[in-house]
């Protein structure tokens, strides 16, 4: 019980005070009592409770007066304290007005125990989230770290500021950016800085699921609802209940499924495949895509109503080459992470290879950087810094930032008069050649999904078959 939230109860009626204290203590909270606003104020200063439950009408200092004193910045009281007002039936309007002054909630007398317990649980979670957010802000100011994200550039600080603002809410967020820029990391940070942190975070890649199975994956199914459905199965919405669901590569979701998703988002109810009844949904939905969402809408890949529903806030992750000044801090953080992950003791990074990294274009963005650092840490002896010998022999073969135009052997020659489709075909085939026919790696470099790359290659194969011999 040492870490249980502290609740101060301020009530001038002795029997009500004792009853509330016993009830709340029985739920596992630590309680303290006071018989009027002045005594409540003094105990709040000394004890620093998480929650104050106070009657409205009391001698010496009433509930509104206590609320006002607790809210004063110069009071020295923790700003994350939650004040819950107890009101008589004729004082509802006063309590509503008190909410505008900063009260967390109010309860009518006689107190509904179930509602009180819910309010205390929600207030505790909200306070913990607010404290974590304050710690994250302090860490960001001191080190440029927000969650597992690193950066002090103007672009990243603007993203961090937006994440801080919207994380505690339940609004939907659309996260865009090239493959490997850290879109899922943004989603996880939004979840970790929200009151939903104790609940599940579930990420589903819409491009990796066959079209015939995606509805079952999202919404679940009943036994016998289709061939192969031998058991009842919960979908991602149910698995993420109370928490956060990330729909990655949203632009690759079948349009028919998008219509059903929109209905779930708007009505907060879902029906498993084959089920006769609906069930309530309590999930915060985030979405990510490496496509330009407006282009996806224009091309018919993304429903406009779903786009507007999810795009309450938009976070665009810039490619690493556009905030390359963050790379040294990112490398330092990744070396520490990989040391811990693999039980190594690499001492840092040699200046010579840091210069090479700063000059490289990083087509795979932060994901490519992470893979590069992980490989190097595994190869590097304990106590030594990373140097050129720990990098892949292929490192730097893609275009470097500092390379003059036309000097790179891997550049794709494009003649005047070539069609856009033909230029795209040349780029895809040249990238596959550079990656040793590694389609996953090529898709990352090109900034498209693996499914899109497979479709393009299938088109090129059909074109060759259709050409006369």
Rg (CA only): 28 Å
What's the oligomerization state?
single chain
CATH fold annotation of the largest domain:
Rossmann fold
Helix percent band: 40-55%
The number of domains: 4
CATH architecture of the largest domain: 3-Layer(aba) Sandwich
Arithmetic mean of pLDDT: 83
Bulk shape: globular
Ends: how far apart? 81 Å
Main sheet? 5 strands, parallel
Strand order of the largest sheet: 2-1-3-4-5
Strand segment count: 16
Our count of helices gives: 18
General description of the model:
The protein is of the alpha/beta class and 469 residues long. The chain folds into 4 domains: 6-132, Rossmann fold (3-Layer(aba) Sandwich), CATH 3.40.50; 147-317, P-loop containing nucleotide triphosphate hydrolases (Rossmann fold, 3-Layer(aba) Sandwich); 321-390, Helicase, Ruva Protein, domain 3 (Orthogonal Bundle), CATH 1.10.8; 420-466, Arc Repressor Mutant, subunit A. It is built from 18 helices and 16 strands. It has helices at 14-26, 37-47, 63-71, 92-100, 113-143, 154-166, 183-192, 214-219, 236-239, 255-267, 293-298, 304-310, 327-342, 351-359, 365-379, 420-434, 439-446, 450-466; strands at residues 6-10, 30-34, 51-55, 82-87, 105-108, 145-146, 149-150, 173-177, 201-205, 244-248, 269-270, 279-280, 284-289, 313-317, 348-349, 385-386. The strands form 5 sheets. A 5-stranded parallel β-sheet has the order 2-1-3-4-5, sandwiched between helices. β6 (145-146) and β7 form a beta hairpin. α17 crosses α18 (450-466). The N and C termini lie far apart (81 Å).
């Amino acid at each position: 019980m040492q870490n249980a939230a502290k609740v101060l109860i301020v009530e001038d009626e002795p029997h009500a005070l004792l009853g509330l204290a016993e009830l709340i203590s029985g739920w596992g909270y630590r309680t303290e009592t006071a018989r009027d606003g002045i005594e409540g104020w003094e105990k709040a200063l000394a004890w620093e409770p998480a929650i104050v439950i106070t009657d409205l009408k009391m001698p010496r200092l009433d509930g509104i007066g206590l609320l006002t004193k607790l809210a004063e910045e110069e009071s020295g009281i923790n700003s994350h304290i939650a004040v819950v007002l107890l009101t008589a039936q004729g004082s509802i309007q006063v309590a509503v007005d008190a909410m505008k002054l900063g009260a967390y909630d109010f309860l009518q007398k006689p107190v509904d125990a179930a509602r009180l317990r819910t309010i205390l649980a929600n207030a505790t979670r909200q306070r913990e989230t607010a404290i974590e957010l304050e710690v994250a802000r302090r860490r960001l100011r001191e080190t440029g770290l927000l969650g597992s994200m690193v950066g002090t550039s103007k672009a990243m600080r603007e993203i961090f500021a937006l994440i801080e603002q919207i994380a505690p809410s339940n609004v939907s967020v659309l996260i865009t950016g090239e493959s490997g820029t850290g879109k899922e990391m943004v989603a996880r940070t939004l979840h970790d800085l929200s009151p939903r942190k104790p609940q599940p975070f579930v990420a589903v890649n819409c491009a990796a699921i066959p079209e015939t199975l995606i509805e079952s994956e999202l919404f679940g199914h009943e036994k016998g609802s289709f061939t192969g459905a031998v058991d009842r199965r919960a979908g991602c919405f149910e698995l993420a209940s109370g928490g956060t669901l990330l729909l990655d590569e949203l632009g690759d979701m079948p349009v028919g499924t998008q219509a059903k998703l929109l209905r779930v988002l708007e009505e907060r109810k879902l029906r498993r495949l084959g089920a006769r009844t609906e069930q309530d949904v309590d999930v915060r939905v985030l979405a990510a895509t490496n496509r330009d969402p407006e282009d996806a809408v224009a091309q018919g890949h993304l429903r406009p109503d779903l786009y507007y529903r999810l795009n309450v806030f938009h976070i665009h992750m810039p490619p690493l080459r556009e905030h390359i000044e963050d790379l040294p801090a990112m490398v330092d953080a990744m070396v520490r992470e990989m040391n811990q992950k693999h039980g190594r003791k690499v001492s840092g990074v040699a200046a010579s290879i840091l210069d090479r990294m700063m000059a490289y274009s990083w087509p795979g963005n932060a994901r490519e950087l992470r893979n590069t650092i992980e490989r190097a840490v595994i190869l590097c002896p304990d106590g030594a810094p990373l140097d050129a010998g720990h990098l892949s022999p292929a490192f730097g073969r893609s275009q470097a930032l500092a390379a003059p135009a036309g000097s790179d052997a891997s550049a794709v020659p494009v003649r005047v008069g070539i069609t856009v489709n033909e230029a795209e075909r040349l780029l895809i085939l040249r990238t596959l050649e550079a990656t040793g026919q590694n389609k996953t790696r090529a898709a990352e470099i090109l900034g498209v999904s693996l499914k899109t790359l497979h479709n393009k290659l299938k088109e090129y194969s059909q074109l060759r078959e259709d050409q006369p011999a």
